[in-house]
Amino acid sequence: MSQDDVVISIRNLVKAFQSTDGTVVRVLDGVTFDINRGETVVIMGGSGCGKSTLLNCLIGEYDIEEGEISYRTKEMDAPVDIAGMSERQLNAIRKRIGILFQSGALFNSLSVSENVALPLQEHSYVDASIIDIVVTMKLQQVKMLEHRDKRPGQLSGGQKKRAGLARATALDPEVLFYDEPSAGLDPVTSTAIDELMMDLSKKLAVTSVVVTHEMDSAFRIADRMVMLERGRVLKLGRREEFEALRDAKQDTLLSDDERLIHQFLNGAGEGPLTDADGMSEFEKLIVSGAS
């Protein structure tokens, strides 16, 4: 693909936190890859690998120590690095992205339709009657129209995710970020959410970035996959490459990295991920809750 097809470019990204004993640890250490327009990229890895930290950096919630995070939305003539941007500048870019948080992050005091309307009321200048039409359309897309007057406390986990997705798409974003979209859902509901995500990606022509450790979901939805380990990109490739590694026989794996990825993808109890004795400084920091 040409550089014009890249919507997000991440270069040599470093994010560090300080542990309780004063040690500074790089939770992201030189992360580099591109996200192409219209594709679905799954970011995965074990607990504490840095994937949630990466998501927070990509949406501008975390300042970074080193590197670049460049966006090129359709109206931009050239990529723009968000590192060091003011909140006002960041908000202009955030209007072009949507986020589905792990919990749905709906406001309990508002109805479903009021939650979906909120981004339109805050960031657009259209008439209330137009907002109501858009809310109706968005709720229809996620099959939640009949629940529009309910409060979040009256919804199931899957319904909350659907309502959150309707809100995330309210401003017709170019990029959708998903934080553990299958977390807390049963397998049937998880599959339904995955199918909805894929359907919306096609209908809305959006770029999707999905953070997950659910492998069934990852292999259903991904065009490409990024595996992180201890803050570094261990492998970046198409879904088919990861499927081949997952299904490979142990004696055909040529490197420790391949054996580690194979163990993770298969959820095996033995392998490089579980062979090391003790905890590294990175793992201690993760356990302490810094990322």
Blueprint of the fold:
Elements: E1 6-18, E2 24-36, E3 40-44, H1 51-58, E4 66-71, E5 80-81, H2 87-94, E6 97-100, H3 112-123, H4 128-141, H5 157-168, E7 175-179, H6 187-204, E8 207-211, H7 215-221, E9 224-229, E10 232-238, H8 239-247, H9 256-266, H10 272-275, H11 281-287
Helix pairs in contact: 3-4, 3-5, 4-5, 8-9
Structure description:
The chain is an alpha/beta fold and 291 residues long. It has a domain at 3-96 and 223-287: 3-Layer(aba) Sandwich (Rossmann fold). Helix content is 38%, strand content 23%. It contains 11 helices and 10 strands. It has a 6-stranded mixed sheet with strand order 6-7-8-3-9-10. Strands 2-1-4-5 form a 4-stranded antiparallel sheet, with helices on one face. A hairpin with a 5-residue loop joins strand 1 (6-18) and strand 2. The model is unreliable at 277-291 (pLDDT under 50).
Main β sheet profile: 6 strands, mixed
User: What percentage of residues falls in helices of 4 or more residues?
Assistant: 25-40%
Shape assignment: globular
CATH A-level architecture of the domain at 3-96 and 223-287: 3-Layer(aba) Sandwich
Beta fraction of the residues? 15-25%
CATH class assignment of the domain at 3-96 and 223-287:
Alpha Beta
CATH topological fold name of the domain at 3-96 and 223-287 = Rossmann fold
Helix vs. strand class: alpha/beta
The string of secondary-structure elements, in order, is EEEHEEHEHHHEHEHEEHHHH
Which characteristics define this entry?
11 helices; Rossmann fold; globular; disordered C terminus; 6-stranded mixed beta sheet; 38% helix; 291 residues; 4-stranded antiparallel beta sheet; alpha/beta
